[in-house]
Amino acid sequence: MERPGIVVLLLVGLLIGTGVGSAYARARRGWADYQTVKKTVPGARSAAWLLIKVATTKIGVIALLLIGAVAYAAAGSDGEPAPPDPTPSPSATPSVRAGR
């Protein structure tokens, strides 16, 4: 009679142990991954700031060039009218040589 009770207790213990064991293994993997990422964060942070500095420098240079081009275009006109387009002159008709 004791055998069915022991079997039930063993099965319940097996189910609980499997759940707890898989949760423990998942927690250990998560902790190991966390430690790995934690060690790489300072390097990634400095690399990200370097990329941000490079991008802002490029954007700043392009903005200065655009502002300079607009200022040059605005200050470039002296108020002189553009010279008139040359009118096309009538072209001479080609002469035909006799005897050829």
TrEMBL record:
Name of the featured protein = Uncharacterized protein
Q: Which UniProt keywords apply?
A: Membrane, Transmembrane, Transmembrane helix
Q: What is the lineage of its organism?
A: Bacteria, Bacillati, Actinomycetota, Actinomycetes, Micromonosporales
Q: Where is the composition biased (Pro residues)?
A: 81-91
- Taxonomic superkingdom: Bacteria
Q: Which organism is it from?
A: Micromonospora peucetia
Region annotation (Disordered) maps to: 76-100
Q: Which residue ranges traverse the bilayer?
A: 6-27, 48-75
